[in-house]
Amino acid sequence: MEWMYLVPALPSLGAILLVLFSGKTGKAGVIAVGCGSMGLAALITVIAGWQFMQSGLAAYDQHLWEWVRVGDFSIGVNLRLDALSLAFTFVITFVGWLIHIYSTGYMAEDPDFARFFACMNLFVGSMLMLVLADNLLLMYLGWEGVGLCSYLLIGFWYKDPPTAPPRGRRLSLRVSVIRPWRSHFSCLCNIQARYSYHRCWRGRRTSGRPETLRSYG
After folding, report:
1. Which residue pairs from 184-192 have beta carbons closer than 8 angstroms and sit at least 24 positions apart in sequence?
2. How does pLDDT run across 54-89, given as a tens digit for each residue?
């Protein structure tokens, strides 16, 4: 379970590599980085899940580093694995991996092949951070990452034919930015209300022992 941090880190690192070096690796390199990072994340999820189920723990917390410290106030980059987050992590990594594999053929002729896989890797990394985050601010960072990637993927084909009206940018703005602004604002208000009431940033999820995983599946 000590490798759990690699589950969200690998897709995010893959996105960074695809953005920086996609022009030098070619299509084969893009597939290796995009699908390979997802496959490794799925494999580590299986290993961490098996270890978690065998441990008998209700939850496993992993502290990575301290993110913010101001006086007595501090927030760390911490991950939390319990039955519910493990179920979501299985779905995200394995379904995401299958989508990546399918996309290698579906997007094969697209000139922005590398950009698509960079967006997909970042999308998966943000979703994993959302479900594994131990505190509300880190969860919100994952939430906003998912929103950003939704905007980038909905408006992926933003170059309309010269004779067609520009729909891509307007659609992506309307669907992923303008309409969901209420949910973003509501999420911030809920985070602030929770902190004001509990004086704690940690997101305590309701979950049982590992044996109760089937009830979440």
Report:
1. 184/143, 184/144, 184/147, 187/140, 187/143, 188/140, 191/136, 191/137, 191/140
2. 888 888 888 888 877 777 666 778 898 989 999 999
